[in-house]
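> example.struct
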């Protein structure tokens, strides 16, 4: 790889980085999946001559798609898009049994505008819909705001014309993690492997490890950093100090724009915070609705930091997927 693409970058970040470096690239999208398939319609991956980002499911399906994408990148005839129909049977050495339809696009100068707008929408938590003219390589991709029910990525045919209607959901979670103790470290390690962005905050600079994942940013700070965090974030509050925990929880709940507010602790800690928050003007009903404490999915009782981290991240992923479904529908 010859340009500054961070490890774990998603398809959109990869394509924007490739365009910024004037590097050739292609986008592969699952436009339709019938029956059993490794990924759903709307799964995407970016491909360059010697790199790839994200996945459409691996195996021979993906190898063949990458091969075709690289042929399209190298094509000098002006062809910009192609489609593939891939039965997942013995011929591909895969036993899913379904059929996957792929749209493959060469990404060039004409795509810069929609790439930039898609990136802005992802940060703002908004849906965009790409309209890709598959049967006309001379026509450009357009990007629109979702109107009504955006639905799922799908193929649309009108006579001889074929379009990909590609629904872009804001799939990257923004996580704000307060606390760099044992559990905080375990969470940062696990979140560092996932499609999310993490602001990791602690007042003690020496608590952070020397190296963190590319999607994790460490910050020396305290509850004063609550106001500048983005709307729609997933908050995890597990500092070394209960008073600091309380101050952060109060500020986050009063903001009123969090996707999730998780506080490490017991039921008794929750009851104590609820009484104190009510005295500070945060209603008991608001606390019951918006504050998660204890954190993590039910049925996992282990207290080891990595076990807690797995349980909590599973809870975040459940909530985030439900949020995306609600946005789409």
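> example.seq
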């Amino acid at each position: 790889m010859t340009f500054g693409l961070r490890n774990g970058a998603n398809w959109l970040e990869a394509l924007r980085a490739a365009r910024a470096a004037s590097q050739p690239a292609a986008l592969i999208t699952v436009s339709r999946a019938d029956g059993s398939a490794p990924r759903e319609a709307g799964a995407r991956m970016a491909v360059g001559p010697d790199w790839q980002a994200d996945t459409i499911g691996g195996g021979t399906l993906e190898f063949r798609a990458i091969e075709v994408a690289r042929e399209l990148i190298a094509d000098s005839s002006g062809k910009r898009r192609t489609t593939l129909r891939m039965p997942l049977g013995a011929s591909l050495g895969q036993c899913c049994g379904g059929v996957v339809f792929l749209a493959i696009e060469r990404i060039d100068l004409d795509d810069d505008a929609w790439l930039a707008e898609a990136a802005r929408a992802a940060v703002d938590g908004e849906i965009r819909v790409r309209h890709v003219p598959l049967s006309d390589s001379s026509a450009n991709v357009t990007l629109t705001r979702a109107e009504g029910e955006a639905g799922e990525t799908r193929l649309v045919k009108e006579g001889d014309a074929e379009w990909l209607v590609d629904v872009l959901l804001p799939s990257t979670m923004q996580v704000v993690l307060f606390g760099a103790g044992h559990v905080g470290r375990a969470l940062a390690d696990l979140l560092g492997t996932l499609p999310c962005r993490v602001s990791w905050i602690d007042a003690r600079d020496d608590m952070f490890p020397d190296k963190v994942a590319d999607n994790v940013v460490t910050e020396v700070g305290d509850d004063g950093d609550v106001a500048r965090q983005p709307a729609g974030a997933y908050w995890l509050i597990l500092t070394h100090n209960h008073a600091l925990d309380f101050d952060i929880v109060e500020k986050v709940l009063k903001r009123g724009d969090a996707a999730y507010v998780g506080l490490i602790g017991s039921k008794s800690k929750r009851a104590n915070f609820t009484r104190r928050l009510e005295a500070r003007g945060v209603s008991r009903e608001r606390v019951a609705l918006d504050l998660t404490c204890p954190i993590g999915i039910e049925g996992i009782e282990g207290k080891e930091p990595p076990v807690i981290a797995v349980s909590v991240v599973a809870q975040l992923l459940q909530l985030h997927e439900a949020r995306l479904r609600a946005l789409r529908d």
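> remarks
The domain at 173-328 is CATH 3.40.50.720 (Rossmann fold).
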